[in-house]
Amino acid sequence: MGSRLRPSALGTYAVLFLIFLYGPVLLLPLFSVNDSIYITFPLKGFTFNWYQQMSQNDQMINALKASLKVAASVSVIATTLGFIAAKAVTRFALPGRALFVGFIMLPLIIPSLVLALALLVVLRKILGFELSLMTVAAGHVMLCVPFSMLILISRLEGFDRNLEEAAYDLGDSALKVLVRVTLPLVWPAIVSSLLLCFTASFDEYLIAAFLSGSDGTLPVFIFSQLRFPQNLPGVLALGSCILVGSVILVTLAEVVRRRGGPVKESGALVS
Amino acid sequence: MSVAKQEESAIGSIRSSTNSMASASPSYSLGWTLRRLWLRSEAVRGYLLLSPTLLVMVALLGIPLVMLVVLSFWTQDGIVFDRTFTLENYRQFFAYDESPLYINLLIRSVCMSAIATTAILLLSYPMAYFLAFRIRQHKLIWIVLITVPFWISYLLRIFAWKVILGFDGVINSSLMGLGLISKPLEFLLYNPVAVTITLSHAWAAYAILPIYVSLEKIDRSLLEAATDLGDSPLKRFLRVTLPLSMPGTLASTLLVFIPTVGDYVTPALVGGTSGMMLGNVIQSLVTRSDNAPMGAAVSIVMMLVVTLIVCLFLWTTGQQRRLVRE
Amino acid sequence: MEWCHIEKQLRQKPMDRRSMLKALASVGLGVAVMSATRGRAFAADQVSVYTWTNYNDPKLFPDYVSKHGTPNVSFFGDTDEAFSKLAGGYKVDIAHPCADDMARWRKSGMIKAFDDSKLAHAKDFWPEIQKLPATVDEAGKRWFVPFDWGNTSILYRTDKVKIEGDPSWSLLFTDDRYKGQISSYDSGPPNVEIAAAILGYPDIFDIPDDQLKECAKLLRHQRDNIRFYWSDQSAAEQGLASGELVAAYAWNDAVARLKKQGLPVAYMNPKEGMRTWVCGLVLMKDVEHEDLAYDFINAFTSPEAGKYLVEALGTGHANKKAFDLVDPKVLDELGISNPTEMMGRTVFLRAVPEDRRKKYVSLFNTIKAGG
Fold it and tell me: Is the residue at B20 inside a domain?
């Protein structure tokens, strides 16, 4: 199975690409234990001060928690909405479909700042809502639905409907078909969409800045810190913890999952 | 947009399959009639399914969008809007002799974004290919690994790039250590090259994942068939893999190109004095000059231009795909 | 054996997906509910303050904390963003703009004047910053309570820059020796004003069009000479620390920081004068907790808070009594050991008439874009 198109060349490329991807990011843990507030070479000496500074910074920890909450809910909500829309668009012949898809894509085109301000005015001056993490999440959902929908459309396009139809013929309910047939088939797209939406929301600044109330998200916190460079290393320490923490979490999850079934088929969850 | 148009043929096949299914049903009860009506009304079912997403988007986006359009025909004094209708903002945008700022920046932004998008796609496609065809185990881990770097604040990643590309940076230090250069290379940072590199890094995940998703979907037996027919690997790639991965590749192109046109953080941070983009002007107009109406007008022109480019792009790729298919 | 495995697997795989989905959905729902309930339950009887993250430190308002507990603090990245968000309808009791922006803030109608009798420390503020333009109205009412202040000048590497003749701001504009190694602040008004000062114009805060044209020439020269415009002080300091920059527009708190890292730097005292900025607190018109707001402001401007501000953040404090509490060595390092003498020499940043300010901004944008 699979192609035999110069495997070594492609493998080498993948390694190089990972170096490109991780090279800059791996510098951050290095500088997070460097005894200097500036991110420059040469290194000055080893210290754990910045981690101590980080653990004592309640504001930053709260901002991190806020970001995690928002990003987790946004990724689930946006992916659900994106899935429904992608399914509708690829499954049925909809008159005026291009128009609707175009409309849903709009948040990508409107400059975030303008969108954020417009949303703020609507929420505050027209609807009179209080700003909170909910409003940030709403803004992010809007931003992420296009991502999710596009990814899922590209997976669902040319989707073999006979499988679904067969399941219906066998008397399965719509929900059962969804869970047993459709979702497993689009699983890679769902995972990709969840991850991209999480990422997009977790690192979004402008909408978060304008739609957050007294509990700001991590990017809002970090931007506000830039005026005071002495606090930057604490942010670096946090970034390193996020990096290491997420790698450990993913590895653990995979180990746990592999315990559950034969090793050989562990790739099947995604493919 | 016309991403959707491209599966007209697929829809045709569903229609025939649903019809045949309905007629093959065994009983003629009331339930069956209802079910048949239900299956017939494709559009109704489609809209019903689309409605939750559409409602959410209309609720969130509708008023802001109308506001944006209306605002672009007003003027502002302090924080008060003068609501007399005027085309002045648009005139200012297109008055090239008076101030070439807007048109120049629009062209620069589109070009910069197009170059970066091309670079990102070229870099990301092989990686997505690798993920889809070479990785058999732990795919989930690989996919997460691709996105983990992006969970670190963008600002920190930019700092890291400055450390790598900078004057005393990793590249310059190692080149100097090796004795290859005697003076630090200054062209690495604060120019469009740096912007392209940084953007490629920042948007990699957004390009890789959609391409991967559509490559993953390709039926492996098609590839084997092509090999059996005597296609060389390259020919097989061009005839089978690439066309079949087009939906994902188009999705990546849009996901990367559209938002980067309006991006201004990256150019401002690593682009140096030549890094100004249209997004910077919008920001300045709205937050500094108290001229939100002009900001709205600039945004709208930018949105229209981007939409036009995207439509043209989709139309040409659609034409090509049709040609390939025939 | 084999059979067992396959069977287990068959049974398990869909289960896995299903349970994973369920788990995901419940996490999402839980989070949504949690954040919904939290938003409502937020302490409503606290003053809300809109400022930079660093000022959210209980040691900067100890009297308030001991009396009322923790205030509701939200953050902004810069004051322009803050202004836009407030104008968009964001509601707080107190915000933290700078004096040179006050014309805009007052014109917006979003803020109201203070009642001087409720300001406990007003009489102890440095006299130089008591009546800055646009912070006090014709009737003598105070619209702005100064809180922090500091200087702006050129920070340069003594090992790389040779000052010839009188030190001057022109180092950041027309000194071609350091082409590609200098940086200035990414904001129109400061650069335009400094250009006007170099040209010796009488009123740099209200420059007529013909003089503005001359300034533009200097700004173009600057654009061609600088490596980048910095939008956050971190970038400028990073550049100076790495050697990428030899001189940059910088706030005075940077001096002590860079010196502490062992870097050979000096802060220029240009012949056109250092620039002094003052930031402070304003009371929003629809303030909800007015009494608490005054308590907060009084705590913020107390000598104890001032001592902490100077020592921890390296900026000056409005209350002159604070300076008696600080170790003179620390003040010396920051270059603010004798504020009265210093303020006599420096140029106070102040509000530019609105139509002029917009012209400065648009001129700067045009030049930055290559015009």
Answer: no
